[in-house]
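Researcher: Structure for this, please.
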Amino acid sequence: MKLGTAFTCLVYAVAAVVNAAPQANDPEAAASRQINKWQRQYNRYVEDTIKPRKTGCTKDKIIYRQEWGSLSRQQRIEYTNAVQCLAEKLPLSSKTEVPGARNHYDDFVAQHIKSAPNVHFSGLFYPFHRYYVHLYEKALRSECGYKGTQPYWDWTLSWQDPAHGTVFDGSPTSIGGNGEFIPNNTATNLTAFGINLIIPPATGGGCVKQGPFREGTFTVNLGPATFNPNIYGNGLGYNPRCLKRDISPIWAANTRPTYVQYELSICGNDFECFGTVSEALNGTHTGGHYTWGGDPGFDPYSAAGDPVFYLHHAQVDRLWAIWQALNHSVRMKQVYGTETAFNSMF
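Model: Predicted structure, token format:
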């Protein structure tokens, strides 16, 4: 499937979430209004582009992705049930290549682990993850009977208190809660893409005890690949454990509306600049990942082992789609860089 087709058949719906009345001079509220305005511009562009078509990507083939909190309780449960369904199906990966895979969900995690060195801090970051999330969404629908579409997690709605947002509140209609708090927990030391990063502990750190992916109902089998000391090899071996999270308000602050508005506006038509700003340590992509953290969340290779990964990257893709539509005649088919991290073509 062509990447352009993946975009023009997809519409991200504006989150139908009611927040407290903002103060007139609140810069975050103003940024949220601007982001929603840009998204509506993107929606009009997609719909106007498709409207005259009689074949290919036509109006009846549009899929609408919604923000997690905009889904009904039943729709959220149907989604998490479909994810559990993937985790109950037999793996398709080669036992030689991915000896740790125990289910079909692991197949997707393995693909991200294998691709990670080439699809981060490179020109493949955005197109790879767009197609990757599409294939995951397709599997949920075609193999597990899911009738909905891949939801996204709009970080800007819960950045001030992510643990109590609809994604992480630990209810049966969430993606699971924070990890159990571990007193005096140690920092996470990881090395990836030539970068060494020490991440201090936050508000959790232990096993997730609440929600559909709590300990005993969901098992992480692959990774981590970048934690130091690295005793797990390349991340493709069998390493069964509970899902752990360590929700951090500090990292969540990097996903606030003003940060998103900045990323969508600062680079003009320069796609390489847009990707660099988003993937930076203080960018929204990193901020979203380390908002939930934990294991495998802190590992940039095997982070897809946490189901919230796909909601996060649907949001990342949403912002790329909005950015593209702001000047579609110039940005829609732009590419940059190579498949090597930090290697520009120029």
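Researcher: Any notable elements?
Model: The first strand starts at residue 10 and ends at 12. The beta strands are 10-12, 63-65, 179-181, 188-192, 195-199, 205-208.
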